[in-house]
């Protein structure tokens, strides 16, 4: 018998791929004990986009999420996705931050670290790999698989050997875009088993429909572990369904030994979550099948669609999908995995929406072209390089990009000050300063921290204790049966009191200070008729957030009265997780800043008024 082991991705990659990483901790809590009893090789529950999504969209502390999941799954190893020197962010962090960060999830519940680099540049894996080994975690080195004129089996084998030399315990073939085919899978797994000799873990997104066949051929070739998701969060941009793979391998030498009846119980729970929230199933459409042309990964596709919706440009999706391969080829065929998927995808969106290819280039794309993310797999279009890197020299090959990253733990600790109460708080700020400061400010100013309870502990709830609002239904039953008069549930400014016989409606949230009305704002600024006819405008080329400075506490790029040159950076509009520098199209003098720092902007919002030179 050569049983194939299963990693479950439901709590991380599956909902990142299908639901734009919007699963809440309350959705997970009731089912964690059953998931823990399945016998998975690991449960992928953290890392990737779940870290910043907790802060940006869910008002959750990612560290609390990890601790709660570990408490609910004490027997099963928890796995995280680590983006090499990028950690769980979208840029390189200093070696100091990288090392400290890796130790933090280990002590909070992570056992398996899947470490990848978007460019398969081994230099970007050295420091996090060393930290994983020092912390005592299992280091799974991942190969970012893609198809291009420069990606060959030999280059993948060379990279896998480099991972082994760094101490990898397992090797993962990370097929984030669903580009693997059954016979490529067989060939690659066979070569890795023969030449590298480590356990092989295969991670495929369903997208084009080949993943189940890939898994069977991988098993036959000697693969040890495959990634699946519960059926409610499987298929489409996600992974194959665990129920399908377990059933397919039964009575074979690869039999997983997992209990299908238990898996169906878990699936029934997640199907209820999906229906109650009106979330979509994973399906493979013509758009997904065309992955063999546009090569857009599952998580990138779902986020790309939602981002275009925000930009009010959903009708431009096909144009963007045609633009992505062009941009990718122009910048040396990077694999489309975070952060390169965001960098290439955002450039494609900007090219399409502005109608001027490469007229706006996000700082992250500039840094990539310069070499700050690592070495491009293939040659770049030198015309593009010259246009983007005006008077800037590309990074020499003998310089490790991560060695240039600045910002120490002590710097972050000093900047965040008393808002941080733990090393985890400081690290959260070091990675996502704006989001972490906002979250910590909100939850440090007299706010009580919610207590999340496991299902077996609910009968211990007493009056005045706080719980996750998602447990409301269970609490109603508890209050009816237990010897308590009521339980108060608070979430933010809302409060629900559960009493015997029912519960009260949420109390109205305190009324915030009224924002200035449109009329008041207009009165405060010069009327259009009062502005000289010679003044021109700089408008937002996308929906996003306006920032006047490169980072919190830094001087603003420009002030009223400043003379600016053509091409000078005026501000940043953060959109699609990237910082997009807005530059002056001509020389002039800034006469008015029309938007406040940190305010949201729509496409076409006036940012500045200036007088041409």
Describe it.
Strand 7 (200-204), helix 10 (211-221) and strand 8 (225-228) form a beta-alpha-beta unit. The longest helix has 18 residues, at 260-277. The strands form four sheets. This protein has an eight-stranded parallel beta barrel, surrounded by seven helices. The chain has 613 residues and is α/β, with parallel strands linked by helices.
Span between termini = 78 Å
Strand content: 15-25%
Mean pLDDT: 86
Lateral strand order in the biggest sheet: 1-2-3-4-5-6-7-8
Note the total helix count.
Answer: 24
**Helix-strand category:** alpha/beta
Radius of gyration: 25 Å
The major pleated sheet works out as: 8 strands, parallel, barrel
Shape: globular
Helix percent reads 25-40%
Total strands: 19
Low-confidence segments, given as residue ranges, are 446-451, 490-496, 498-524
How do you describe this structure in short?
This protein is α/β, with parallel strands linked by helices and 613 residues long. Strand 6, helix 9 and strand 7 (200-204) form a beta-alpha-beta unit. The longest helix has 18 residues, at 260-277.
Task: Explain the layout of strands and helices.
Layout: E1 5-8, H1 10-18, H2 25-28, H3 32-36, E2 42-47, H4 50-58, H5 62-72, E3 78-82, H6 95-108, E4 110-115, H7 126-135, E5 138-144, H8 153-165, E6 170-175, H9 182-195, E7 200-204, H10 211-221, E8 225-228, H11 242-249, H12 260-277, H13 286-289, H14 291-294, H15 298-310, H16 317-330, H17 340-354, H18 363-370, H19 382-388, H20 409-416, H21 423-431, H22 433-444, H23 472-481, E9 486-491, E10 494-499, E11 502-503, H24 518-524, E12 536-539, E13 544-547, E14 563-564, E15 569-575, E16 578-583, E17 588-593, E18 600-601, E19 606-612
């Amino acid at each position: 018998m050569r049983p194939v082991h299963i990693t479950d991705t439901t709590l991380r990659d599956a909902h990142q791929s299908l639901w734009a990483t919007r699963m809440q901790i309350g959705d997970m809590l009731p089912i964690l004990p059953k998931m823990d009893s399945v016998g998975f090789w690991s449960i992928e529950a953290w890392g990737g986009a779940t870290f910043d999504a907790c802060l940006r969209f869910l008002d959750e502390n990612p560290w609390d999420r990890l601790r709660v999941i570990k408490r609910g799954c004490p027997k099963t190893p928890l796995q995280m996705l680590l983006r090499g020197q990028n950690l769980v962010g979208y840029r390189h962090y200093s070696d100091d931050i990288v090392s400290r960060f890796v130790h933090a999830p280990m002590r909070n519940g992570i056992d398996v670290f899947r470490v990848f680099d978007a460019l398969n540049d081994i230099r970007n894996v050295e420091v996090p790999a060393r930290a994983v080994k020092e912390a005592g975690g299992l280091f799974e080195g991942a190969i970012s698989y893609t198809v291009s004129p420069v990606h060959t089996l030999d280059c993948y084998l060379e990279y896998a050997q480099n991972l082994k030399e760094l101490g990898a315990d397992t090797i993962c073939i990370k097929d984030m875009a669903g580009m693997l085919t059954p016979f490529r899978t067989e060939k690659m797994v066979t070569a890795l088993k023969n030449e590298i000799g480590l356990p092989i873990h295969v991670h495929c997104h369903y997208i084009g429909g080949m993943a189940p066949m890939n898994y069977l051929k991988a098993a036959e070739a000697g693969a040890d572990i495959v990634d699946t998701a519960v059926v409610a969060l499987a298929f489409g941009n996600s992974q194959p369904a665990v129920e399908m793979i377990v059933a397919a391998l039964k009575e074979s030498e690869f039999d997983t030994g997992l209990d299908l009846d238990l898996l169906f119980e878990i699936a029934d729970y997640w199907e209820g979550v999906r229906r109650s929230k009106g979330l979509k199933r994973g399906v493979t459409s013509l758009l997904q099948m065309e992955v063999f042309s546009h090569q857009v990964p599952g998580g990138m596709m779902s986020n790309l669609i939602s981002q275009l919706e925000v930009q009010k440009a959903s009708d431009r999706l096909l144009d963007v999908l045609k633009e992505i391969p062009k941009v990718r080829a122009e910048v040396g065929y990077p694999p489309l995995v975070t952060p390169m998927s965001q960098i290439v995808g955002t450039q494609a969106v900007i090219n399409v929406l502005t109608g001027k290819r490469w007229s706006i280039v996000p700082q992250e794309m500039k840094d990539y072209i310069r070499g700050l993310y690592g070495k491009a797999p293939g040659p770049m279009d030198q015309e593009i390089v010259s246009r983007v890197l005006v008077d800037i020299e590309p990074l020499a090959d003998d310089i490790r990009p991560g060695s240039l990253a600045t910002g120490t733990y002590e710097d972050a600790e000093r900047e965040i000050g008393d808002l941080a109460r733990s090393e985890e708080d400081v690290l959260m700020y070091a990675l996502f300063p704006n989001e972490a400061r906002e979250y910590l400010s909100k939850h440090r100013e007299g706010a009580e921290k919610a207590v999340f309870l496991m299902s077996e502990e609910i009968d211990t709830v007493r009056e005045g204790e706080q719980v996750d609002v998602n447990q409301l239904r269970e609490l109603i039953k508890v209050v009816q049966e237990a010897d308590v008069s009521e339980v108060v549930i608070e979430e933010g400014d809302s409060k629900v009191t559960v009493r015997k016989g029912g519960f009260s409606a949420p109390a109205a949230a305190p009324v915030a200070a009224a924002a200035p009305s449109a009329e008041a704002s207009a009165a405060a600024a010069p009327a259009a008729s009062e502005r000289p006819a010679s003044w021109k405008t700089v408008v937002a080329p996308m929906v996003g957030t306006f920032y006047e400075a490169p980072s919190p506490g830094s001087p603003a790029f420009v002030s009223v009265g400043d003379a600016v040159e053509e091409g000078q950076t005026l501000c940043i509009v953060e959109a699609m997780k990237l910082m997009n520098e807005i530059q002056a199209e001509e020389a002039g003098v800034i006469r008015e800043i029309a938007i406040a720092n940190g305010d949201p902007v729509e496409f076409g919002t006036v940012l500045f008024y200036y007088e041409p030179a």
